[in-house]
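Allow me, if you will, to draw on your knowledge of protein folds for a short while. I have a record of one protein: its chain in single-letter code and its fold written as discrete structure tokens. Could you please explain, in whatever detail you think fit, how the structure tokens follow from the sequence? The record follows directly beneath this note:
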Amino acid sequence: MPQITVDYSTRLDFSDSLDVQGFARALHETVVEIAAATPEACKTQFREGYSAYGYEDMEDASHALVHVTIGLLSGRSEETKAKLSEAVLELLREHVAQEDGLTLHASVEVRELDPSYRKFER
């Protein structure tokens, strides 16, 4: 915990548009600060995928999506989750380069992990 997933459009290139390393570091620091997680508990998986927007052809590439999901153990207030969401949106503004002709759609969901959540480490 926390379990973090970043889904993003293939349109966003790791080297040019999306500062993955910088974003992950800043994201983990933010989660530790706001949600009282420990640094070693923060785990983020980046998943690239094709995105469709409205009725446009997928090849149009004038829109890109980034969605961050943060799963936390229960106990955080709604205010804490909202503050974390706003902070992550600000991090996306800082770590995703603005490109001419590209509309970025960024979103964040902070949710509680289901009580059935379990994990192990080796």
Q: What stands out?
A: The chain has a mean pLDDT of 91. The beta strands are 3-9, 43-49, 63-72, 103-112. The first helix runs from residue 20 to 35.
